[in-house]
Amino acid sequence: MDGGAGPCAIDLNVIDAAGKPVSTALISVHVAYGFGGFHKLDMSVYSSPEGKARFTGIPAKPKNAPIEFYGKKDKLMGVASMNPVTECQAKHDLVLDLPKPQQK
Predict the structure, then answer these.
(1) What does the alpha-carbon distance between residue 4 and residue 37 come to, in Å, rounded to a whole number?
(2) Domain extent listing, the chain
């Protein structure tokens, strides 16, 4: 998915808690950038059968770094983050697992 808003990119390896690739997981990201964060970029992509996902065109100077990529498939959820200021070309694992119960 190309956001067309900058030179940065991230390659995500979407895996489950056992380290196996997760296909067709939905990965979403919201980025505010530019003066005062007035520009907004929302992107979503599904992981490939090999558990791969790629986002390009990410701005180098987002308003609130790091940027968080939220993944989900069925009941599995996970988050990966990147800071384009320090790693413009990033590669990360996005581990999907069952959400932890809330503590009261």
Answers:
(1) 16
(2) 8-96
- Token pair listed for 62: 């987002």
The CA distance from 22 to 15, in Å, is 5
Q: Which residues contact 14 (CB under 8 A, 6 or more apart)?
A: 21, 22, 25, 27, 47, 51, 52, 53, 71, 78, 93, 94, 96
Residue 44 · residue 1 · CB < 8 Å:
yes
Q: Tell me the CATH class for 8-96.
A: mainly beta
pTM of this structure: 0.87
Per-residue model confidence as pLDDT tens digits over 19-67: 999 999 999 999 988 776 678 889 999 999 999 999 999 999 888 889 9
3-state secondary structure 26-66: EEEEEEEECHHHCEEEEEEEECCCCCEEEEEEECCCECCCC
